[in-house]
Specification:
The protein is an alpha/beta fold. The protein is built from 13 helices and 17 strands. 37% of the residues are buried.
């Protein structure tokens, strides 16, 4: 990396602070002593300055520490200094946060065994949930910090009343490039047009079996045709790419892998197989029940010619394959057998206003109470920045010290 400084000589002001200041941060201007005899100075010079910074702002310290690890720094005259727009929301492992998952409810009308228990469910009280205005405010702050994608999840997000109104609020925010929804599709077909008109970009629909009796057994929901109708409606409205998520569990639905591939080809959509994860309420997960990506590909090989598709972004969760000789794609999301934590770009906001830096976090950070106590946008920005710096390096599934989170997927948001 090359950093342009404002002037050459014994003192130089670091550029890039202006863009922070324009975001309403109260950042001090600070200086580094540079070697007067040359334009280039070594990393050690900068590292020695990091510990002496007077500022207590954790993001600034992290940013400067990151510069100390870069390959070289070059001092250039002001006339040649390009504008620098530093990434504002990065964790301590230098991963940029661009994706925000927002759970709007912990309620769900499906009772999928890999997620929820059908007994003894306790939902959050209404007053504990973030209002649409609070979600809008927090989303705007995240966008100011470099997030560009928002996905609405649950529970089942369509159970939250007037969700189209939230979609309209979020789609109007400056800097948002992608607004998506994950749903079980139970009545999406009836509301899809309103969602599209409000600004929804695309949709992902969960479907774990193509057999009506098994679908009912897995979900506890009878109207399988409603989900198919929602998928069809999403395609008609071009909420592309329409994706279908299927959680594979050995002994439950792993005999439908080729059926789902045919479904992807016939319907010209992307079916994404997701490995079973240890985040179910009834704690029935075992490693033996996980169907790995290599097994899926081996199952599909005799019937399908699959062509790998290069990732458009390193942080994408799915390995993608085109189905040769037809339409459709297959996606593999393999958090257990092939973790992708090293390129993770996501944080989660729960329905009750907690920040989770990983799906498997053991710690949550309460932003709701800070906001309701009167925190300013600048104070909330600093809180989010310091929280992201605590993001875990990885989820540690399969490690001897792995501890599953206390809340299931339905409460956290997928």
């Amino acid at each position: 990396m090359v950093l342009s400084l404002g002037s050459c000589g014994s003192q130089a002001r670091v550029l890039g602070l202006g863009s922070w200041e324009s975001s309403n941060f109260e950042l001090r201007t600070f200086t580094f002593r540079l070697r007067t005899s040359a334009f280039r100075f070594e990393q050690q010079t900068l590292r020695s300055q990091v510990s002496s910074l007077k500022t207590q702002d954790p993001r600034l310290i992290s940013y400067v520490s990151g510069l100390a690890s870069s390959s070289s720094l070059i001092c250039m005259p002001p006339a040649l200094s390009p504008k620098i727009d530093p990434v504002l929301l990065k964790d301590r492992f230098d991963r940029q946060i661009t994706d925000l998952r927002v759970s709007v409810t912990d309620r769900c009308n499906f009772k999928c065994s890999y997620c929820r228990t059908p007994h003894g469910v306790h939902f959050a009280k209404r007053e504990s949930l973030l209002t649409y205005e609070e979600i809008e405010r927090l989303a705007g702050i995240f966008l100011d910090l470099g997030v560009t994608k928002i996905r609405l999840t649950g529970g089942e997000p369509l159970l939250r009343r007037n969700l189209e109104r939230l979609v309209g609020k979020l789609s109007a925010l400056k800097g948002l490039e992608d607004l998506a929804l994950t749903t079980n599709g139970f009545n999406f077909y009836d509301r899809a047009n309103r969602f599209k008109n409000a600004g929804l970009t695309r949709v992902t629909i969960s479907l774990d079996s193509l057999r009506q009796d098994r679908f009912r057994e897995i979900t506890g929901y009878a109207d399988y045709d409603d989900v198919l109708r929602s998928i069809e409606t999403a395609k008609e409205l071009k909420l592309d790419p329409v994706k279908v998520n299927c959680v594979l569990i050995r002994g439950v639905n792993d005999d439908e892998i080729t059926d789902f591939a045919r479904f992807a080809s016939d319907w010209d959509l992307e079916v994404r197989f997701i490995e079973f994860m240890p985040i179910d309420e009834e704690e029935k997960w075992t490693r033996e029940r996980v169907v790995t990506g290599s097994e899926i590909l081996q199952t599909l090989k005799p019937e399908f010619d699959l062509t790998p598709v290069a990732r458009e972004d390193a942080s994408e969760t799915a390995q993608k394959f085109e189905i040769s000789g037809g339409a459709g794609r297959i996606g593999l999301i393999l958090p257990v057998s092939e973790p992708f934590c090293g390129n993770c770009s996501r944080v989660r906001l729960t329905a009750d206003g907690k920040i989770r830096t990983c799906l498997f976090s053991l710690v949550e950070y309460d932003v709701r109470d800070r906001m309701r106590a009167g925190a300013t946008d600048e104070e909330l920005k600093k809180f989010l920045i310091s929280t992201v710096l605590k993001k875990e390096e990885g989820h540690r599934i399969g490690e001897s010290d792995f501890v599953p989170p206390s809340r299931s997927m339905s409460y956290i948001g997928g």
